[in-house]
Amino acid sequence: MALIQMNYLSKALFRTVPVYVILPADRFDADTDRYLNEKDHKFKTLYLLHGLLGNYIDWVSETRIQKWATEKNLAVVMPSGDNSFYFKSRTPWNDYGTFIGEELVEMTRRMFPLSDKREDTFIAGLSMGGFGAIRNGIVYSDNFSYVAGLSSAIHIFDDVSEEANIGLFDNIGEASKTDMNPRTAVLEMLEAKRNIPNFYMACGRQDDLMSANVAFRDFLREKGISVTWDEDDYGHDWDFWDSQIKKVLDWLPL
């Protein structure tokens, strides 16, 4: 296993962006308890997004994702998303949607031995990153087959007074009618008959975002989309996300 820190010039963001990559050096065979040196093996990949005020090192420093990904023979790509909510904001050179949904996937596949198959490509995140994973997993559903949102900040189009909205939009009412809004993105995906990803959502019962996550879960189910749901007696904290990312990896088809 290798933990790689890199910086690359993003065309979507027009600046150098830091990224962490967990890359299994060889494929581990649990049956024989040995590593298989297969130079042509392509790894399944999880694109993992951090939350508001965080950065690309959060998942490695706060959870056991490195250990569990290695055991699962899973590559994990963790980019810095600033406080962007992972979509294109009103300011120039901030197209985080294209960055996450297309450019990062294409670039990392060129650089590392990653599978280029949709069924082997997944996206997940926590809080702001949960919103970003859900929204981009829907908008770019032809790239991602499994989507997981943990304690997702899925409420940002529900309350225009939320501080997180400041600076992101020219007009939040108009933005809510576009695919920036996950609900609108779902309707567009269904109308276009694009691939529908598998969803996993989880939230702590003491988390202020619980009701918003339940509402979005129910919205997906009302549209005929299956959602695996989990909840536990946690708040909006790393103890919950550490326990949940293990459950996400167990849920993925690895």
Describe the protein:
By secondary structure, this protein is α/β, with parallel strands linked by helices. The chain is 32% helix and 24% strand. It has an eight-stranded mixed β-sheet with strand order 1-2-6-5-7-8-9-10, sandwiched between helices. A two-stranded antiparallel ribbon has the order 3-4. Helix 4 packs parallel to helix 6. It is globular.
Highlighted features:
single chain; 254 residues; 8-stranded mixed beta sheet; two-stranded antiparallel ribbon; 8 helices
Put the structure in a nutshell.
This protein is an alpha/beta fold and 254 residues long.
* Overall average pLDDT: 92
**How many helices?**
8
Structural class: alpha/beta
Largest sheet: 8 strands, mixed
Strand order in space, largest sheet: 1-2-6-5-7-8-9-10
Gross morphology is globular
Rg on CA atoms, Å? 17 Å
- Low-pLDDT stretches are none
β-strand percent reads 15-25%
Question: What is the number of strand segments?
Answer: 10
Distance between the termini: 17 Å
Q: Tell me the helix content.
A: 25-40%
Give the SSE order as H and E letters.
EEEEEHHEHEHEHHEHEH
